[in-house]
Write a structure and sequence with these properties.
Layout: E1 41-51, E2 56-66, E3 73-79, H1 90-97, E4 119-127, E5 130-131, E6 136-138, E7 141-150, E8 155-165, E9 174-175, E10 183-185, E11 191-192, E12 194-196, E13 199-201, E14 215-224, E15 228-231, E16 234-235, H2 238-241, E17 255-265, E18 270-273, E19 276-282, E20 288-294, H3 299-320, E21 327-332, E22 337-340, E23 343-346, H4 352-364, H5 380-399, H6 405-416, H7 434-456, H8 461-472, H9 479-490, H10 495-503, E24 510-517, E25 522-528, E26 536-542, E27 547-552, H11 565-570, E28 585-590, E29 597-602, E30 617-619
Parallel strand pairs: 1-14, 20-21, 21-23
Antiparallel strand pairs: 1-2, 2-8, 3-7, 3-11, 4-5, 4-8, 6-7, 9-10, 10-18, 12-13, 14-17, 15-18, 16-17, 19-20, 22-23, 24-25, 25-28, 26-27, 26-29, 29-30
The chain binds zinc ion.
Amino acid sequence: MFCHPSLSSSIHWFCGLFFLLLQPVGYSAVQNTPPSYWQLHVHYSMSVMLDTANHHLTGSQTLTIKNTSPDTLNELYYHLYYNAFQPGSAMDVRSRSLPDPDRRVGSRIQKLSPDQIGYQRIVAVSQDRNPIASFSISGTVMHLPLKKPILPGQETSIELQFQAQIPVQIRRTGRHNAEGIDFSMTQWYPKLAVYDANGWNTDPYVAREFYGNFGTFEVNLKVPQNQVVAATGILLNPEEVGHGYSALSKPAKGWLTWKFKAENVHDFAWAADPDYKHDTLRVPKGPLLRFFYQSDSTLANWQALKPYCQQLFERMSATFGPYPYPVFSFVQGGDGGMEYPMLTLITARGNLDGLISVSFHEAIHNWFYGLWGFDEGKYPWMDEGFTQYATDYMLHQIRKEEHPRKSIIATYKMLLAMPNRQPLSTHADWYSTNRAYGLSSYIGGAAFLEHLTYVLGEERMPQFWRNFYRDWKFKHPNPENLIRTAEKVGGMELDWFYREFILSTHTIDYAIDSVWKSKEGIAIRLANSGSFPMPIRLRIDLKNGNAQNILIPLDVQRLHSNLSAEQKTLSTIAPMSPWPWVESTYTFELPIGFQNVQSITIDPDGYLADIDLENNVKILP
Ligand SMILES: [Zn+2]
């Protein structure tokens, strides 16, 4: 999602048959997911009709659920997101109670009139065609006791009839957005909550993030013929609709049913507007990019955006794993930028730099959110943080923007300095301010990856992403799964790193305590005054212009002989013994003439969010 433009000007704030050909060498088909891992399989078949005059939606949904869990399911939960757009809803109350509310929500929900609110009414429910009358709805969550329990390994079908009113555009979804897009159709259908190893995930919608079951969506959208539709998935009947999907141009009369299908996705979004200009660009050996926008003052920016998007998909696929879907759509709509599978809704009336940044961020979500289906409520730092990290590096590579590490670490240190800081393990909805949420999730996650790179070694990161992709695409990896992948790639223990970075509010603070001339040559004493221990990289600059690099492992890493090639080069001097994490100092001697040393620097590449940098460099006389 796009959010918090006010936090920092140096960081961008936001918030996405040829498939086989896309698999480059190195993406082995052999997966390494724990054998106990499971996730539900869902298949949505929906048909809806959009009444554009009254902004109503009438629909039917058949949801086939395969219970791949080891548990018997006696009940189901659904999200009915439109119900959030009513005075007194959890989203309304939460927005009005936060000290720094999102301006796009504020107290707007409280002021909605009956024809402006959103609602999702369930008209009828049945299970395998046997009616269920006893469901109940509380705000945005529906509880559905089942007629017949779904045993492990069994399948059932739930048929729903629903009637919805599309709210005025407030947050992500709704009609008639500020840029004149008629319908931004997100969070628009009754959506099954995720049942996972933690049970049901039934968070009420209070404006933040999502979590959905992977599956197939087959959606028929019946709209007036003049509407141009953009949606998740592949259009199955392009020759019937025209509108840039086929060369055919259709008369603007009557109704048209658009048929979309998407596989291996966990949500379905669409947008409709009669004024959409629609054109495409094929990424070589990659997806077809579609662009839907209004032919107004933003036209030149949309044209300029396209080649950057092509480069983005090429570089993202090479760095983090191939984009796994055949198409991606950049769609003008919504209220900023928001990611959906195979599609993003973005507003476009800013400058070109802003349009490129937001387009990059939201498209990149199709890796960090899309193919890795993180629980965005529990782990916002994985979803937003990793997206932010990749966005910054892609902007650096493609647009030659400044290398992002310095800015990520500096902004992260603003978070570390906040009074009453909440750990990164805080649920997205439960941060006590929007600012804390923004810094923690966007920058916290980006800083996490910088520190992981520091610990694993830069050269191991490509293998880390390849393995994480191989093992967890189209699944719901949690932080422990990610750490496990890193441990295997790095040949080291990382439990301590995860605990300190994510579950605690501890901070890093190392210092060069003292340096003196010794019998061997030079003696150095380092001090750990922080609460978060780390391995230490040290550079010794010599007066003759050469430098020596040293790596001091942390005892709990259990590195043994598993030093990577990079780490071996890092330690240009004999391997150092590990620093026990309980020890506050570490003293060692090197066979380097004291008089030859110019300076000694901790973390010379600036990876660490060391809260006091004053004592990290020692310049010798
Ligand atoms: Zn985002």
